[in-house]
Write a structure and sequence with these properties.
Blueprint: H1 3-6, E1 10-11, E2 17-18, H2 20-29, H3 41-54, H4 64-80, H5 108-121, E3 129-133, E4 136-137, E5 140-141, H6 144-155, E6 162-167, H7 173-183, E7 190-194, H8 201-208, H9 211-218, H10 230-241, E8 245-252, H11 262-274, E9 278-285, H12 291-296, H13 298-309, E10 313-316, H14 325-337, E11 342-345, H15 347-360, E12 366-368, E13 377-382, E14 396-404, H16 409-414, E15 418-425, E16 427-429, H17 434-440, E17 443-447, E18 454-458, E19 467-470, H18 485-494, H19 529-543, H20 551-560
Parallel strand pairs: 3-6, 6-7, 8-9, 8-10, 10-11, 11-19, 12-13
Antiparallel strand pairs: 1-2, 4-5, 13-16, 14-15, 14-17, 17-18, 18-19
Length: about 600
């Protein structure tokens, strides 16, 4: 999916690749959604065609009404019952966002389905909120767009109960009265959603206009809404009070369209707010950092490097394809040599590994199979269970367990030794090079539960104050009131508030299990029973009962099918391991343990 057309592809716990709007709902509502919460025209038509092929319609003519509309209603009713708060409790209210613009031919079937749904469940169980725009012309707010939109909705049988009017400034009272009169809603149900100093004030703005009370009244709910959200108000006010600015250089290939990195942007924003800093994202096009740009457009090359040099921290996000990758490698090199705080995500981790191998191992041709299929030193390789000839829907997706080495930077940031984060990738670190990277001083301080897939790469404190990268995407679990530890660490380091000696109040407390020493026990041949129980509990919670295959089973299956994964013996390294049937201890009695050398405290 092109980032320029679709923006960011948001990944859910169950591996669903969905529209970025679902990320907004997860962040603001604190919910954990599933791929079935993303309803598209393609999914509906596919389900109807499958039913028809199966004979469910008994040979009848399949039509938009009733078959397509019934499928939409059935999907909504089924998904509305899925728990989303980590418990088995069904939700009390289901929010349905119908995107697009009133009158779009693409959404007509959904409008008809929602009209039928309102009739089916009754008006007391259905609240229609219409979001409109009140533009200004000559300093006067105009209500005509809202009037015409509501007229269209009434024509299809879906008159709104509440109208949200987006505007640059608070809605004039006369405009409210006019919208109320022509759209047949009470004046109190016309809500001004005007521009505010920061987006965190929007829930407070709605609360001040009694929106929860209006919705509960329409749904005949007896629940009393809250009077205030103090923690949210404090966060919103702290953002406005922040006096100092932190500049983070975002080195990517889709910088012309910032929605391609929406969750990353939001995660930085949340972290900066908790660090009492104003965030300034410096957009750096990685293509413009490359040497060929210096030859063809030297002024652009120089300007881009000046922006990078002026940043307090550097972040290299995910991406696909070889365009601009060499510029990312140069940015990672610059951050490492100049001791600038660095965070790499997905491709950003692979870039960091490539740069380290070129700079410290002397592998000048170090690269990835994604960019050079026949390279001599591909330190990044296809995952063995992935078919390199198939590009559609074959990535490693969703929430996966990562085991973190005690005493590492990652452990300091997360305060845990077992975490769950979301993934979206088809390449990984080549196991053949792990030993050499460790010997040069690099550290893989996070692995999956098989101990064979590298999840976190970092540099020790004596080499760099803050240099860390993850194969997973921490931005997908970052929340306004609980920013991701990796982003929090980057912003703190960039604003010179980070120290490994004193835990910052905004970083989570160390809640690691006391038995998680992560020392290889040759008799146990794996994790302690206590650790296994916790890993399984975290995986089950993260996957939300979806029953996804673990990495252990997928890697074992790949090995049985002739996968290319090699088994690395590193007696001096440590990490607890799960062993698949196809692999076991080496002849030396040691097992692949690619985390890092034992510290004195161990």
């Amino acid at each position: 999916m092109s980032p320029y057309e679709h923006g960011e592809v948001y990944v859910l716990n169950d591996g669903g690749e969905v529209d970025l709007d679902l990320g907004n709902y997860e962040r603001f509502l604190g919910t954990t959604l599933t791929k079935n919460h993303n309803l598209t025209t393609g999914k509906i038509y596919q389900s109807v065609i499958t039913r028809e092929r199966r004979g469910d319609y008994l040979g009848k003519t399949v039509q938009v009404i009733p078959h397509i509309t019934d499928a939409i209603i059935e999907w909504i009713e089924r998904v509305a019952a899925i728990p989303v708060d980590g418990t088995d409790r069904q939700p009390d209210v289901c929010i349905i966002e119908l995107g697009g613009t009133v009158g779009d031919i693409e959404s007509m079937v959904f409008l008809e389905a929602l009209r039928q749904l309102e009739y089916r469940v009754g008006t007391d169980n259905f609240c229609h909120v219409h979001v409109s725009l009140a533009p200004e012309a000559g300093g006067e707010q105009k209500s005509k767009p809202t009037q015409h939109a509501v007229r269209e909705l009434r024509a299809v049988g879906l008159p709104p109960h509440i109208i949200f009017c987006r505007s640059e400034r608070p809605l004039d009272r006369n405009v409210m009265k006019k919208i109320s009169q022509f759209c047949m809603v009470p004046p109190s149900h016309v809500i001004s959603v005007h521009n505010v100093s920061n987006i965190m004030f929007v829930p407070l703005l709605l609360l001040e206009q009694h929106v929860p009370t209006l919705i509960f009244g329409q749904l005949k709910r007896t629940t009393m809404p809250v009077d205030d959200i103090p923690e949210w108000r404090n966060l919103a006010m702290s953002i406005d009070r922040a006096a100092e600015t932190v500049r983070i250089a975002m080195v990517g290939k889709y910088t012309e369209f910032t929605d391609a990195y929406l969750s990353v942007n939001k995660s930085l924003y949340y972290a900066a707010s908790h660090a009492n800093r104003r965030l300034e994202i410096v957009w750096v096009d990685s293509v413009n950092l490359e040497q060929k740009m210096q030859a063809t457009r030297p002024e652009v090359f120089e300007a881009e490097w000046k922006k990078l040099a002026a940043a307090d921290g550097i972040l290299v996000p995910g991406g696909f394809g070889n365009r601009g990758v060499e510029g990312m490698v140069l940015a990672a090199h610059y951050a490492r040599k100049k001791k600038i705080p660095y965070l790499g995500i997905c491709l950003g981790m692979q870039v960091a590994v490539i740069e380290y191998c070129r700079g410290e191992l002397g592998l000048v041709t170090a690269n990835s199979e994604e960019f050079d299929r026949d390279g001599t030193d591909n330190v990044i390789m296809y995952m063995p269970e992935i078919d390199p000839n198939t590009m559609g829907g074959n990535m490693r997706l969703g929430a996966r367990t990562t085991i973190i080495a005690r005493g590492s930077l990652a452990h300091y940031l997360y305060g845990q030794t077992v975490i769950s984060e979301r993934h979206r990738h088809r390449y990984e670190v080549n196991p053949k090079y792990i030993d050499r990277i460790h010997e040069a001083g690099g550290r893989f301080t996070g692995v999956d539960e098989t101990c064979q897939r590298m999840e976190i790469f970092e540099l020790p404190e004596e080499q760099h104050p803050f240099y860390i990268a993850s194969q997973f995407h921490p931005e997908f679990l970052s929340r306004p009131l609980k920013p991701s530890p990796l982003f929090m660490g980057l912003v703190l380091a960039a604003s010179k508030q980070f120290s490994r000696k004193v835990r910052h109040e905004k970083l989570p407390e160390d809640s690691s299990h006391p038995l998680h020493n992560f020392v290889w026990n040759p008799k146990a041949h794996g994790l302690s029973e206590e650790t296994k129980v916790e890993v399984e509990a975290i995986r089950a919670k993260a996957h939300d009962g979806t029953g996804r295959d673990s990495d252990a089973s997928s890697i074992t299956a790949a090995a049985a099918a002739g996968g290319r994964r090699s088994f690395v013996t590193t007696p001096k390294l440590f990490i607890p391991c799960f062993l698949g049937e196809s692999e076991g201890p080496s002849s030396s009695g040691q097992v692949a343990s690619p985390i890092g050398p034992l510290g004195e405290h161990e």
